[in-house]
Design brief:
By secondary structure, the chain is α/β, with parallel strands linked by helices. The protein is built from 19 helices and 10 strands. Strands 1, 2, 3, 4, 5, 6, 7, 8, 9 and 10 form a 10-stranded parallel beta sheet that branches. Helix 11 links the parallel strand 4 and strand 5.
């Protein structure tokens, strides 16, 4: 090959690689343009993040002057300390005293997180604008910070290939679907990673924010799926540490957490709402089954305990740290199958408290047999709805009826699918038992943000769209009864609903001068009826 030919080949290759490398920015810029926003000259100085390469900021960036994207590694450590320094400086200069923490769940890439968060914030702002509920003043926004937790929650098999091959974008395009398939096998590892990020990294960031704000910070948390593991680990007490102070409300949307005292915050002195849906197939089936060989609740204990009791010097020791980590990981493997009989017995005792529902709840978990049982329950619920003169709304099966003989108990069943577990059982945390646990169905009158404690909210009426087929299982029951059995995800990922935005609005716009809500006037561990809710 002559020198001239070599030069032409090199130039052509460089042009090709340059074009491939520009695909992602172009795609991102197209999405930003679709939002129809106008470029602001000082935006690049105000927002120090990779999106400064773009030419048009989103609605979220224009609305929220204090946006931060703290990024965490697998050990829960901060990877962009400059972002934390910017947060500290802004708290001091702008007197920020309200913090909204957002945390996504599984199957997300850290290098795409900022754009995904901005898209979600844009959807929220559009809903607020449409309803006309929110007209914030510049002063209010200047004292408000939005913290978007960034972490790699998807397998990254493309990383070594991208280091070896010069076609970065081609490798990424080819490997993306492979990464998502392989990520299914990382449930155990990513669950432990989320626990470490919450217990170590995010908690440290929020404590720092609280200190910089002079102890006057008001923290509101919105999380989804594995992001709920991060959120709950950050705020609840762990071994030698007290609860995080300043939390005023938390919304856990379809959390990948077990309904026990290890996973959920214990005895919260703030309102905590947990959404549930019978159409969340990921939490209904995949979560408890995956916990059989590798239990996530015990994994949570083992993955956070070491760093709680060990000094930083000990944990960073290149010899001791791997041994300690291996010990805790082995413990969670051991606890998975060993604890199942005890957890299952506990779950069955809980289910048998309603013997009139036990058989129907069990049969409703089986194909075909499910159809007459659910349709009968729908007809009965519809009659009660009409008799009470309630507005017409979708009628679904009730979360409260449980899973009967298929309930694996408090160490395995997800809080997003199962009724309360662990708070009045042998698997409650030995430290504290939750004082206030309530049950409501979305649409019930009453404000769940008015009382502290945990509120399980059945949102089957609104969280019912299949992430695989795109259909609404409430409206297409034939699909629900047939192909729905082949849908491993269900409504787990389709959460960007106006009603969810309404709940976020109600939580974050409480007056911080009110302090934390009062205890619920009703009895603990009982359903929050319309009468109880002050209707």
């Amino acid at each position: 090959m002559t020198m001239k030919t070599t030069a032409l080949f090199t130039a052509a290759t460089a042009l090709l690689l340059t074009a491939c490398a520009n695909l992602t920015p172009e795609e991102r810029q197209a999405r930003m343009k679709a939002q129809g926003e106008v470029y602001e000259a000082d935006w690049e100085k105000d927002v120090q993040d990779p999106l400064c390469r773009q030419t048009e900021p989103s609605m979220a960036i224009k609305t929220f002057p204090n946006l931060y994207f703290p990024q965490f590694d697998a050990s829960g450590g901060i990877t962009n300390p400059a972002e934390i320094r910017r947060l500290r400086a802004d708290i001091a200069t702008k007197k920020i005293n309200r913090f909204i923490v957002l945390s996504y769940g599984w199957m997300h890439r850290a290098d795409e997180a900022q754009l995904e968060y901005l898209d979600n914030l844009n959807e929220y702002l559009k809903a607020e604008s449409k309803d006309g509920n929110w007209k914030p003043t510049p002063d209010y926004l200047n004292h408000l910070a939005v913290l978007c937790v960034v972490w790699d929650s998807v397998a990254r098999l493309d990383t070594p290939l991208r280091d070896l091959l010069p076609a970065d974008q081609t490798v990424r395009t080819v490997m993306d679907p492979v990464n998502k398939v392989v990520t299914v096998a990382t449930l155990w590892a990513k669950g432990a990673q989320a626990d470490r990020i919450g217990s170590n990294g995010l908690r440290a960031v929020l404590k720092l924010a609280q200190e910089e704000a002079g102890g006057a910070a008001n923290i509101f948390v919105v999380a989804h799926s594995f992001g709920c593991r991060i959120a709950s680990a950050a705020v609840q007490p762990h071994m030698l540490r007290p609860s995080l102070k300043g939390v005023r409300g938390m919304l856990l949307v379809e959390p990948a957490l077990a309904a026990n005292g290890l996973d959920l915050p214990q005895d919260p002195d703030f309102p905590l709402v947990v959404t549930q849906s019978i159409y969340d197939h990921a939490n209904s089936a995949l979560f408890p089954i995956a916990g059989l060989p590798l239990n996530l609740s015990s994994n949570r204990l083992y993955s956070t305990f070491g760093k709680d009791v060990a000094s930083e010097a000990h944990w960073e020791n290149p010899v001791a740290a791997p041994l300690v980590d291996l010990y805790y990981s082995a413990g969670s493997v051991y606890a998975g199958p060993y604890m199942w009989p005890f957890s299952y017995l506990d779950g069955q005792l809980h289910q048998l408290k309603r013997p009139d529902r036990y058989v129907a709840s069990t049969l409703a978990q089986l194909p075909l047999v499910q159809i007459p049982i659910e349709e009968f329950e729908r007809a009965q619920a519809k009659k009660q709805q009409q008799k009470a003169g309630e507005p017409d709304r979708p009628v679904t099966g009730s979360i409260e009826k449980g899973k009967g003989a298929f309930d694996f108990g408090p160490l395995y069943e997800s809080a997003a699918r199962s009724p309360m577990h662990g708070y009045n059982s042998v698997f409650s945390s030995p430290a504290k038992i939750a004082g206030d646990v309530h049950y409501v169905k979305y649409g019930d009158r009453g404000d769940p943000w008015s009382y502290h404690g945990i509120t399980f909210m059945d949102c089957s009426d609104i969280l019912s769209k299949s992430g695989v087929f795109g259909a609404d299982y409430n409206k297409n029951r034939f699909l629900h009864y047939t192909l729905g059995w082949l849908d491993p995800i269900g409504a787990h990922t389709t959460i960007m609903e106006p009603q969810i935005f309404d709940m976020i609005h109600a939580m974050i716009h409480r007056d911080p001068k009110q302090g934390n809500p009062t205890p619920h006037p009703g009895t603990s561990h009982q359903s929050l009826s319309r009468k109880d809710s002050g209707a």
